[in-house]
Give the backbone structure.
Amino acid sequence: MAFMFRRRAWMSTTLLVALAVLAGACSTDYPNSTFNHTTDFNAANDAVWDRLLFWGTIVFVGVEAALLYVILRFRRGSAARETKPVHGDTKLEILWTAIPAVILVFIAIPTVRTIFMTQAKAAPDALQVEVVGHQWWWEFRYPELGITTANELYLPKGRTVNFALTTVDVLHSFWIPQLGGKRDLITNKTNYLWFTPNADIATDALNGFCAEYCGSSHANMKFRVYTVEPAEFERWAAHQARPAVFPVAPAVPAVPSGAGVTLQTASTAPAASDSSAPAAPVAPQLEPYWFPKEQLPSHVIPTTKLPVGLTFDESALAAGDPERGRELYSRSSCIGCHAIAGNPMSMSKVGPNLTHVATRHTIASGLYQNDAKHLALWIKNAPAMKPGSLMPTLGVGEKDPVRKTVMSAAMGGLTDAQIADIVAYLQALK
Amino acid sequence: MATIVAAPPYSSTATESANTGLMSWLTTVDHKRIGVLYLITALVFFVIGGLEAFLIRAQLAVPNGTVLSADMYNQLFTMHGTTMVFLAIMPLSAAFFNFLIPLQIGARDVAFPRLNAFSYWIYLLGGIFITVPIFFAVAPDGGWFGYAPLSTKQFSPQINMDFWVLGLQILGISSLAAAFNFITTIINMRAPGMHLMRMPIFTWMSFVVQFLVALAFPVITIALVFLQFDRFFGTNFYAIGAGADPLLWQHLFWVFGHPEVYILILPAFGLVSEVLPTFSKKPLFGYPVMVYSGILIGFLGFGVWAHHMFAVGMGPIADAVFSLTTMLIAIPTGVKIFNWMATMWDGDLRFNTSMKFGVALVGMFTIGGISGVMHSSPPADLQQTDTYFIVAHFHYVLFGGSMFGLFAGLYYYFPKISGRFMSESLGNWHFWLTFLGMNLTFFPMHFSGLLGMPRRTYQYDAGQGLELFNLLSTIGTLVLMLGTLFGLINLWKSWKSGERASSNPWGAPTIEWAIPSPPPEHNFDTLPQITSRYPLWDLKGAVVTHPTTVADEAGRVQKTAKQLGIPMPNPSILPLVTAVGVIVMFSGMLFTGSNMKLAVAIMIGGAVWWIAGLYNWLLTPLEDAH
């Protein structure tokens, strides 16, 4: 019978759909899937989702099957049929008012329970992380550890992390789909979100997104999350809390002097303390750690296309000199926005902190790989690389896509050779 | 005491109004013609909004698409939402309010025919005002929701959002004027015997919607006035530097925005509740329950707004309360679905295009309803909000619900509007392509959303597992466009040369089907006496609304209102004149940034213009002395 066949096809479609959802839950083909049980937070939320999916599937199959039955059973055949003028039935009305009401009870109870569970106060010993939204990048601070970094977040497994979310401009939303739901960053307000990554999840690199529309480059406001072993986290944190080591010196435990800074040491100390005053106690120095580049999964390697017409003289890159670059950096407009602990000229907090920029795997908020070529192009013309970028065009002869002006040397523009020097400096900031 | 002030002398020069030519359309106050104007205008905007959507999907077909720039993309998604909500679906509903409500309640016209024309002209001009900038790449780009502080001058210094702030206020005038007009019409102008529980269900749902408009639009107007004052006069309602709480905007916007959802869907529910009984040859199952559930949906709709804000950090108590109120709405909505199915049960179902769209609404809206319950639960919503899962959800509601219902209504009422049938063969193509295209476009979005794709992003990386879903959605858009093309061709051809329809071609039960198709200007020759909910079924042949004439397809001549001695409102250009003045006044605001003197001059000019227009309007009697 035709309708039996159709109904079966319909049911199997539904099943397939459900299977696809389940497949999405486990498959590595979907690196930003929301169906994980990697934290207490997403496990609790996903349990509610499972109930919703269960009841939703029942309602879906029930209603659509009934509808198809009505369509196939009562459609007019070759001749019109007589119908009975039935106007209603009170018992039926009560019945199908009650059915959704009862289903909703099954959904409402776990919902309310989970709301109160996941929005309780975070454990007092939680790792504190301050998340600050900027158009269009993320600032991450670990206030207890004296670390300020950008766009790349390290989380130790097995420890509760409590995010305090604020924004300096418009609304944003902090979202790591693999680890849990989102929370908005609201101007003039601090929001909180906490969860505990399970101790037994893999050491992994995950994607984070801005999920609240925030203007031109909303799509480009991404970040990376590295779930690492507690020991690795400690090594990372100890390293990040120190000023950058420049020039790359032999392993001297030169903590307060921020090696290589030959300017007045007096001003160095506050520069270092800017991010890491408590880092002074000279514990046995841990081997620096950051997520190894070779282990990056493909889904955290950006594939963003370069803007048409923006090029860089790649032979200049090889000739870049970090020492010249530091000198150039320290007297150019770079220092108007960026901070590098250890470089006393560079203390501004407008843009991302570059202290250990070379330990990051992406630039421009997860938009490009952090390598010499992309860094050079970025410095040359950031607004062309990322729509709306508040970092100005710096390359000589480059047209600022917003202001429509062409950069000249007199305006402080940089030649490819100069940019190559700055790139060499930044790449030395490990 | 008996001082009787003589009434001002009416001019007796008015003749029978011409009913062809451009001037007749510019001056018309006939609710049916205004309905047709709404219909055509809204369909044009529907096509524009659809093309905007197509460009969005073209950009997203593959990772890191290069069809659009980020800024153009942001303008397009802002305008797609704004266009579809305010310029397509609401006015399509308004087309049916206009055309049908007076016919369904047995009235000569709406209560305020010139105000009705004014509503239309404000809508048309406001729609042009807000749409034209997209052709110059300066369209609003803050999203249809216009969240502060992004929409404030500090973060959107260009003219783009000015068009949005002013345009929505202009459109609000139109909606509010229409709402009061229809409320008055429905309360005061029902034919003798049509007490509320005999009112056709479409009119009932429209009645609910007018109250929603009247109560919800003032709220967004306040939000917009605040924003306008911030942008133009430097007030601090949303100025973050002055300590503003951006959630003020969100609360105001969604107190409007959620009832707006029901403003968009209830008219479609009403239309389907007319279509299903006729083509099932059975009365609507549980009419009183359908009425109450519509009222309940409208009422509860005001208590759920913060479910759009579960991620903003309202705290567990507010999250729990708004979650539960939202879930409650599923009950009256579910009841409607069951009643529609019970209406069809044991019926004699005739699957023409209208019925296909109507039944498809029941099936597709159910999907949107289920996903709606899914994100009524904050724990699930925290993963789903601002992802493509939400996009999938509300397109099942607004396309699978509202648009399918409006298409069902269009195919159903087209014979009444035009006197001709729409083509069933073209309609078949229209339906199946639309049905297929809609599902192909929006179903994969459930997956792209749950698998981590945020909304409002102009590009996404390769290798995130999103390629297939996005490509399917884009292909679906192409199918949808093809389907829409069939629909438009059908409309055009049928209008010109469709098969002639009799007064009641479907064997429908309500009184609009007792008068000729298309109806004469005065609608009913005599006031119909209503003794039942379905007079044309219950009293076969007994409803005599045209004792002096019969439908012209029988070759006999219809008498005009004048021959019958029915006083009709005179055509008037003044609603249009007044509307133009209002638009000019608002347009002046656009120049405040560049040339204050010019801006003030334009605003004063516009104000004087519309006040003069209104003054003349008020002093001109609606109809000739009688």
Notes: The longest strand of chain A covers residues 127-134. Chain A is about 35% helix and 15% strand. The longest helix of chain A spans residues 40-74. Residues 127-243 of chain A form a domain with the Immunoglobulin-like fold (CATH 2.60.40.420).
